[in-house]
Amino acid sequence: MPAPDTIQIFVPLKVRKKNGRPKILPPADYLPSEDQTQDPHILRAIGRAWAWRRRMEAGEFGTVRDLAIAVKLAERHVSRQLRLAYLAPDVLKRLVFGREVTAITVMHLTESAALPWGEQAKVVFDEAEKGGV
Q1: For the segment 42-55, what is each residue's pLDDT rounded down to a tens digit?
Q2: How far is the C-alpha of 129 from the C-alpha of 68, rounded, in Å?
């Protein structure tokens, strides 16, 4: 019997929706290289939230409304984004320093910031793997 002309290769990838678009996620045991980084929108939002938090704690702004007016954004948006400054330390470490790539959106991340610290990592990382985004 002659050898087949084609071969099949199986790559264990997951496809999840991110911002309405499909995103291919690597296998759970895959370690990304140095050049692969977290979604820049998530990193930018976390950085902005921490900057706003520092400015408010320094007394530069008395309310979120004053901050929103100063940065020329809607008060609701600033209030929601400011929650990212209160993410659990282990979640921040995995997102910012570990650069773990997730299919989570900034909106979902801000919603999970309202949860107790012990539950945030489970929601942010485990739910993204299960497709609950």
Answers
A1: 888 999 999 999 99
A2: 34
